[in-house]
Amino acid sequence: MNLEQLATLPLNSRIQAMEILWTSMDSVTADTSPKWHLNVLKDRLGEIDNKQYSVWDDAKKRLKAKSTLH
Predict the structure, then answer these.
(1) Predicted pLDDT of residue 69
(2) Cα dihedral 46, 48, 53, 56 sign
(3) Is residue 17 a contact partner of residue 9, using CB atoms and an 8 Å limit?
(4) Burial class (CB in 10 A: 0-12, 13-18, 19+), 64
(5) How far apart are alpha carbons 22 and 29 in whole angstroms?
(6) Sign of CA dihedral 40, 43, 49, 53
(7) Would you say 32 and 26 are in contact if contact means Cβ atoms under 8 Å apart?
(8) What are 4-59's pLDDT values in tens digits?
(9) Cα 31 vs. chain centroid, distance in angstroms?
(10) How many angstroms separate the CA atoms of 24 and 32, rounded?
(11) Reduced to 3 DSSP states, what percent helix, strand and coil does the chain have, rounded to the nearest 5?
């Protein structure tokens, strides 16, 4: 079965397929991810430790101010 065929299944069958795929992710280990993922994660954690982050409401306000669609 290919992805196009999967997308045409009834909802119950698609949900079951998602559950099967999600369960199969249990076998994924840290070795499976590319090394650059760990580097990005370390950078992000460092930003949190250094308080270099924004509260979501503040970030949304800044994005809206930059947007012409508000």
Answers:
(1) 65
(2) positive
(3) yes
(4) exposed
(5) 14
(6) negative
(7) no
(8) 999 999 999 999 999 999 998 887 776 777 889 989 999 989 988 888 878 899 98
(9) 18
(10) 13
(11) 75, 0, 25
